[in-house]
Amino acid sequence: MSKLEISKVDKSRKQVKTKRAKTGGRSVGTPNKVSASMKERIKQFIESEFDGVVTDFNALEPKDKVQLFEKFLAYVLPRQRETAADVTVNTQSLMNEMSREEITAEIERIQKNRNDK
Fold it and tell me: What is the pLDDT of residue 114?
């Protein structure tokens, strides 16, 4: 193994991983010049053609406007993740785990909360 290689042992897989030292290219954190340049060119194009885009948008059929508007929103609003919660409660198993006194106390608490409302 050369001095430029760093060896690590993955204990769970019993394999040796080798990582070479960085010898060239961009420094860590340096932006890609081509990407930055292209983004700037696209930005300039959109700014120069914006009035024409608005005119063309206004000439669209309503259903086409909605579709295009929806596509534009993806670049402005963050996407929402779908979340789901399983709130199923198995009352029978809960009651089997509770003593008669606990069940009676819970019923009284629920009735008191109803009366307070």
Answer: 83
Structure tokens at 3: 């001095």
Tally helices (H) and strands (E) across the chain.
4, 2
The first and second tokens of residue 103, run together, are 């069940």
The residues, any chain, with a CB within 8 Å of residue 9's CB and separated by 6 or more, are: 15, 16, 17
Q: How far is 114 from 117, CA to CA, in rounded Å?
A: 5
Residue type, 101: E
Q: In terms of Cα–Cα distance, which of 20, 15, 16 is closest to 3?
A: 20
- pLDDT (tens digit, 9 = 90+) per residue, 94-112? 777 888 888 888 888 888 8
Cα-based distances in Å from 96 to 86, 100, 105, 106: 21, 9, 15, 14
